[in-house]
Task: inverse folding
């Protein structure tokens, strides 16, 4: 059965899309640690990040770079943190989260619940900023 | 002033080295979250991961891949997790940590203190395994 991320990639499940190319899709995490929390997912459905093909691995951080810069511009933070855990969905994915301290990347803390209006606003802010920084 | 990681790269400070090439060095974190916790550091001294040059970004996960596979082979874990926080040392670095749950990547938990003998054993185990998986 296709992972929930493959169903998002195939358009079966909606998402707040931030960026897409032939190899990756990025969208807002619907249970974010902080506002601006983005998931970067390869279209190749592989469970573990380091089992993804070398070609995809070499493109991953480059694809994420303008998203991370946009997160750093839009949200008050020291920088964009990055985490790959992957124990809940068997489809490799990278978390990008604006952080001010190590605790902001602690996945044991309660997740936020944002309104659809706020999610759309965050999507628009990030997409606009990515358009500027390219 | 050179970062502590540049001083390790330059050989001024010793480390338990796991792997090195022209662009990166990997060594054991001396205050690990878990046994097998490795730092992957670009030789280019840049504070934030996503400010590193595109060429280095494209090589980073590829360099880390055999280390992550070795961690998964040597230590009892579900997989190798990955985290980039970077608030303490202004030289971009990636943490590779064997994890069984999200809490294993929580940097607010107390760090381990391992003996020099155990650090050397872990270094040897990982280097031997990297030699196998190449």
Result:
């Amino acid at each position: 059965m296709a992972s929930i991320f493959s169903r998002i990639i195939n358009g079966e499940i909606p998402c707040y899309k931030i960026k897409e190319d032939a190899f990756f899709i990025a969208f807002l995490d619907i249970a974010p640690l902080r506002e601006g929390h983005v998931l970067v997912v390869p279209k190749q459905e592989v469970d573990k990040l380091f089992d993804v093909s070398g070609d995809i691995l070499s493109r991953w951080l480059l694809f994420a770079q303008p998203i991370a810069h946009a997160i750093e511009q839009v949200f008050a933070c020291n920088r964009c943190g990055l985490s790959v855990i992957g124990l809940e969905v068997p489809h490799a994915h990278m978390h990008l989260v604006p952080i001010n301290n190590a605790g902001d990347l602690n996945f044991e803390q309660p997740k936020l619940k944002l309104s659809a209006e706020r999610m759309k606003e965050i999507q628009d802010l990030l997409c606009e900023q990515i358009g500027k920084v390219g």
Notes: The beta strands of chain B are 17-20, 24-28, 38-42, 79-84, 94-99.
